[in-house]
Amino acid sequence: MLGKRVKAKIVVEHRKHEKDTGSAHVQIAMLSRQIDELAKHLKKNPKDHHSRRGLLKMVGHRRRLLRYLKKKEPSAYEKLVKKLDLKK
User: Fold this and answer.
1) Segment holding 4, helix H or strand E
2) How many CA atoms lie within 13 A of 26 on its CB side?
């Protein structure tokens, strides 16, 4: 679970305009951070299957958002993947 300050920082870094909080860019960045946090948790707690399922759902959601972004804005997709250091 990300705190308010962390979420606000991610939104400021990835928003398109002043009031943007829900664009694909912001959602992908937020999911990527949550996925990283949950992956760390699961390394310490390998039997936590409930959280593992949540992780898989988040990864699938991020994949769908990335696919959408790649289709709509290929240049923005390339920039975001590079900035977040994601595999294509």
Assistant:
1) helix 4-14
2) 17
Secondary structure element (H or E) that encloses residue 50, with its range: helix 49-72
Which residue ranges form the domains of the chain, and what is each CATH number? 23-84 (1.10.287.10)
Q: What is the dihedral of CA 88, 76, 65, 58, to 10 degrees?
A: 60
35/55 Cα distance (integer angstroms): 6
Tokens representing 85 are 């250091």
Q: What is the pLDDT of residues 35-87, one digit of tens each?
A: 999 999 999 999 999 999 999 999 999 999 999 999 999 999 999 999 999 98
Within a 13 Å sphere around the CA of 41, how many CA atoms are in the beta-carbon half? Answer: 16
